[in-house]
Every structure is written in C-alpha cells, then in structure tokens.
Amino acid sequence: MTLQSTSGNEPILDVQGIKKYFPVTGPLGRLGGIKGQVKAVNDVSFKVFKGETYGLVGESGSGKSTTGRTAMNLIKPTAGKVFYKNKNIFDLSKKELRPVRKELQMVFQDPFSSLNPRIRVGDTLEEPLVIHSLLANKNERRERVFEILDKVGMQAEHYYRFPHEFSGGQRQRLGLARALISNPEIIICDEPVSALDVSIQSQVINLLQQLQDEFQLSYLFITHDISVVRHISDRIGVMYLGKIVEEAPTESLFETPLHPYTQALFSAVPGKHRAQKRERIVLKGEIPSPLNPPTGCMFHTRCPFAKDICRTEIPQKREMAPNHYVACHLYE
Ligand code: SF4
C-alpha cells in the first residue's frame, strides 16, 4: 500500500456529486405511477489517487455498494459526474466505454457472481481477454491465465476445474484473478472479505496489498467492517444514509473522529485507538428509511448532540485538519 499525497496529484477516479434515486411504485408497478424515491446515494463526491486505497465505510443501507456500482457506471446515475483519467464516463458511448471497462474492474462479496458455475475457471478467466481483444491466440491467453493464477496464489491445474470445487477464499482469489487479467488501473472491491472466515480474510487482504504494490493498483474498498477498512485504507469516507459525513486520512480519522456518527461507529469496536477507548456510544433507533430521509442533517434522529438547526439545515463539509473533512453543525 502506497500512501499518496492528495495535493498536486491528479486523481485517477474523481467522483463528483453522484446521486442514485430508485423509483418506488405501488402494487400495479409503473402503471400505477411512481409513489416516491429511495435516495440511495445523495450527492457523494470523493477522489481516488494512483496507488491509493480509498475506503468507504458505513452500516448496511448507507449506500456504499450503490455508490460503487454507480461510480462504475454499472447502474445509471440520477445525477453527477465520474471522471476517469479526466473523462466523464457517464458521457461516453458504449464503444468509448469498452476500453475504460477494461481498466476499471470490480470484485464482489460473492465471487460466484463473476464465476459461471458451468464453465471451467480457465475459460471464465480468459473471457475478458477475448471481450477486450487483448490476446488473439488461445495459447497466449492460457499462458496469461496461468500467470495470473500464480499471482493470486493458485496453481495452473486450477485452470481446468469448476468453481464449486473451490473454498470461499480460493473463489475470492479467482474473482480477483478475473478482475486482474485485463491489467486494470483501479479495482472497486465491494465487501470482498465479508463472507470469509477471519483467518482467510487476512490472507485475502494481504494478497490485495501485495498486488497493489506490484501493479500500482488503486482500490475503492467498500466495507462495513471498521477493522478491515482501517487496516487497508489510506483515506476513508464514512457514509450515512447516502452521504459522506466525514472523510480523512486513516490515521487522522481514527485518532480524531469528529462526526458523532463516526464516533459512535468506532466506539462499538474494541481497539487500541483513542476513539475506540472512549465510552461506547449507543445510537438510538434504526437507520431511517432512505425513502423518507430526515430533513436537515440526516443523522439528527439518532444524534446525541442534535440542536435545532440540525433538524432544518443540511450541514456543509468543512476542512478541520489537512484533508480531514466533516459535515456537522457542531464545527461551524
Ligand atoms: Fe448531530 Fe447536528 Fe452534527 Fe448532525 S449536524 S451530526 S445532528 S450535531
């Protein structure tokens, strides 16, 4: 993992104000008209730099995964821009998007989603080489697959096997191999270790870090797991109800979490960091529905420090320390 300076360095991925609203219909579907909108991602911006890991953390339902999929253009955005190497990928035609897809890859929580159960692993791994016309010759493609299998700690003989013959950890290595084979610049990792045992989790995380060093990869790492995000990330964005409420370099965020939501999230995890040694902050209630989000600060219904202004005015992001931003009326 290479810690990047965020100044004087062009981002490889520049996400600007993306929104993703899902229409909600009644029992008649679209015939009965749209009844409302689920605001899954609501004005999210962040940058990922070359060789950097940007972590997105938050509870389930905070919009992290939808942010990742929208940033990849896998689902159509409601608004916003995503610049990859200075081009807004939402403006690209299908043809123009194809070479970008090769460089922007995704690894999912369930590696089965990128491995066809009826196709031998070798053929699945070769597929991106065919789609992107990277290697025309079958023997060259097979050699490339052997090389990638080796990089992810698998053997050449695994080329001929089917996905069901592998353990969860091995399948995640294969999911990673599939993402790596087309030489990507950035990989969006969506809860890549959440389904694995703890010992296997650390092996996969170590592998991700080795591959990052070797290939100068950038990662957008999405997880609900505080320990994992702290271990792997250079910078972290904390998400709550479709918004990033705090963003900071990892060390700064764990030393001085500023947003009451971040403080509560960290206080639930035992650890040696100052924030985690504080008294546990138990939040009231459940995360509200994104169909009917609170007015003002999204967190005011659960925040122990909420004031009148929090119920009516959306707090703006402020830089409180170098590259450490928070959106909370307490800091105005
Ligand atoms: Fe709490 Fe108000 Fe800050 Fe929101 S803006 S986190 S409600 S203090």
TrEMBL record:
GO terms for molecular function: ATP binding; ATP hydrolysis activity. GO terms for biological process: peptide transport; transmembrane transport. PROSITE patterns: ABC_TRANSPORTER_1, ABC_TRANSPORTER_2. Residues 13-266 form the ABC transporter domain. Keywords: ATP-binding, Nucleotide-binding, Transport. Coiled coil: none annotated. InterPro entries: AAA+_ATPase, ABC_transp_ATP-bind, ABC_transporter-like_ATP-bd, ABC_transporter-like_CS, Oligopep_ABC_C, P-loop_NTPase. Belongs to the ABC transporter superfamily. This is Dipeptide ABC transporter ATP-binding protein. It comes from Bacillus timonensis.
